[in-house]
Amino acid sequence: MPLRSINGIALSYDEHGTGEPVVLVAGTGAPGRFWRTHQVPALTRAGFRAITIDNRGVPPSDVCEEGFTLDDMVGDTVGLIEALGIGPCRIVGFSMGAIVVQEVMVARPDLIRQAVLMATRGRTDPLSAAASQAELDRLDGGVKLPPRYEAVVSVMKGFSRRTLNDEQTVRDWLDVFEMSPISSSVSRSQLAVDLIPNRLDAYREVPVDCLVLGFEDDLMTPPHLCREVAAHFPRGTYQEIAGCGHYGQLEEPAAVNAAIIGFFQKGRG
């Protein structure tokens, strides 16, 4: 995977396919390969060039143990788009990655042609604030969770009741998350990025077409938080994917991919 010097750090990214570029920004603790099983193949089949990023805090990008902010992550995404010469481009963000994308849209709307925001929010609700602060307290206390425990927590929080009631599917996902963890221990600063103030009013003047995808059974980012983000972007549209939890793009990839690609193809017209 190539590395670029962006915003004062080494930022790792990868490119797949040819055609109009789509940048994909993952959530807390997740590497760029998070997108490779489902979204990257679908995008490349549809004629897009998929560019995945290992956000700062996730190796092989710089870990930045001294800490960083949401503004730093926004600068990384802007810097990579400019370094690759692909703006204005299409962009997809998931969870924390969607928060980063929203701030890119505010700061540099000229760089974004269309945006898809998945499992996102424009403010920190009380439960999310408590969950993020609890994780920060754990890290500050030096508590490191075993990979198997983190896998159990990720599956319980990230999937719908339908998936959790399927014993073989649960076993499979537990194995996946234990072998390739999306770990909240990777970066304290990424956890802190999740604690955003109310940014909804900042979206009202953003002249970018965006699709906000909410997931019906999402416990981590309930759909009403996604709907209010879409309502505050003047060119925002909301779509809800049924029967999936926070990791909707893994649980219902066909529906998610169809929504993303359909939205981008309309933009081509």
UniProtKB/TrEMBL annotation:
KW Cell inner membrane (keyword) present: no
Record's keyword terms, sorted: Hydrolase
UniProt-recorded Gene Ontology molecular function terms: hydrolase activity
All residue ranges annotated as the AB hydrolase-1 domain in the record: 22-259
Keyword Transport recorded: no
Organism of this sequence: Actinomadura viridis
Record's GO cellular component terms: membrane
Annotated protein name in UniProt: Pimeloyl-ACP methyl ester carboxylesterase
InterPro entries: AB_hydrolase_1, AB_hydrolase_fold, AB_hydrolase_sf
Name of one Pfam family that matches: Abhydrolase_6
SUPFAM superfamilies: alpha/beta-Hydrolases (SSF53474)
